[in-house]
């Protein structure tokens, strides 16, 4: 039985395969959205609720998706920590998606199969990294920073689909990044995303690559963050407005700032550096 982050990745892969939002998942299980965020981030879910989750996704994934034997029954499930696993757990969410497609993919629409398979194949080919945030860089001063395959909107928000982008992985010197003032603990916490839209101009322009720290998963002070709000992904400046709200700020004065609920805002990373390219 998968546990911890691997279980969380399996829940997220099943959610994508079923085509439900995190908000809908929370509504269906009558829990608050932060609880669902804990499920997919850390695999933090009690045993009784986990059985309901497995049953909920049974139409798109089978027991093998969760690291269970094919003859699994709910009554035979022992303590979550001691369940036998028939084969090694997949090492990333992309592996889990491929495993799910191979064993349960016949139940998926062709469009969903194609989208999920494209993400898995891109990961195999060393192209854009889909969800494997933990991959370390190269040994030595030069390290690889993985390019996360989402557009983070600086306007009305973007759904997290697959997009062809100009950048693949990039290789940089951590010491040089620190000389530029980029603060981070470990280089494998750094990822690249692409800004999309004009609302953060002139700070961030349309299609600017951004180096973000995915180890920052909560508000740590005024700054620009990559976050999910209302099931869409944003890059905006955040400030605390009051005990219940953030102020979501656009640097472009043509775009209005707005208040958003703190308990409905899920920070994914903090933006550290804009990788601008200017013609001269």
Automatic annotation (TrEMBL):
<keyword id="KW-0804">Transcription</keyword>
<feature type="domain" description="Peptidase S24/S26A/S26B/S26C">
    <location>
        <begin position="177"/>
        <end position="271"/>
    </location>
</feature>
<protein>
    <submittedName>
        <fullName>Repressor</fullName>
    </submittedName>
</protein>
<dbReference type="InterPro" id="IPR039418">
    <property type="entry name" value="LexA-like"/>
</dbReference>
<keyword id="KW-0238">DNA-binding</keyword>
<dbReference type="InterPro" id="IPR015927">
    <property type="entry name" value="Peptidase_S24_S26A/B/C"/>
</dbReference>
<dbReference type="Pfam" id="PF00717">
    <property type="entry name" value="Peptidase_S24"/>
</dbReference>
<keyword id="KW-0805">Transcription regulation</keyword>
<dbReference type="InterPro" id="IPR036286">
    <property type="entry name" value="LexA/Signal_pep-like_sf"/>
</dbReference>
<dbReference type="GO" id="GO:0003677">
    <property type="term" value="F:DNA binding"/>
</dbReference>
